[in-house]
Amino acid sequence: MEQLTGKLYIVATPIGNAKDMSPRGIQILTDADIIAAEDTRRSMVLLNLLGIKNKLVSNHKFNEYGKAKYFVGEMLAGKSVAVITDAGTPCISDPGNELIRAAIESGIPVIGVPGCCAAVTALSVSGFDLSSFLFYGFFPRENADRRRLLEEMRRADTKTFSFYESPKRIMDLLDFFIDEEVGCRLCLCNDLTKVHERAYRGSAAEVKEELLARGNWDKGEYALSVELNEDYRFRKAEHTVTAEAMLVDAMLQGDLNAKDAVAAVLNDPNNSYSKNELKAAALNLKKLFA
Is 160 exposed, middle or buried (0-12, 13-18, 19+ CB in 10 A)? Predict the structure, then answer.
């Protein structure tokens, strides 16, 4: 008899309140042959609370490459594997992607079991424009990297951004926003879905003042939503030199063909044209000199 391939389930778990665990998620975890967890000790607390007894195997960022082969082998043998993280939806700034890629390459069905996600929950209560947004995971630690990211944000096609931050670094991040005079509104959520959850709103200086007034701000988990002020965002650059002129200059100076000239101009810090605009200009040059 032919052996049926197992399935890989990506199961969201509560971010604080155990009652947010979906009935379907509970059923999947109950029936799974293996539960792959980021931290087996933390996951055991939730599973015990839900009355789930199962085979729990670690799948954290330090062993996910080696464990992916093991899990795929088990699924090819017909077993089902459910992936969970410490809290929230797996793979959102958490390990799991390596296993998913390996499962897809092996023809194993990958099934999402939706539920909590701290970033989306924080955005949903922010009151910001969510017609589009960018999620960056944790904010960089070094100021140089922070400034590069800030410039990227100012040039983005959206004005709303989502981050996670450690309670040990949240005050330092607010000080960075204040020192850099970032024009924005913040919605800083702490301990979402838990008994003492809080949302701090306003400028970086106003949020910092609220945190200091509260005390014990270096505890719990933080999800930060940022909406840049319109006058702080970079406006679309007014081109003083045509794209064709920049390409011709690059070709002459570097003895490049049109394709390589496009790549060179894209890497030029003074360039304000998009890749598609430069490609169109290269095509235009080809027509002109054909």
Answer: buried
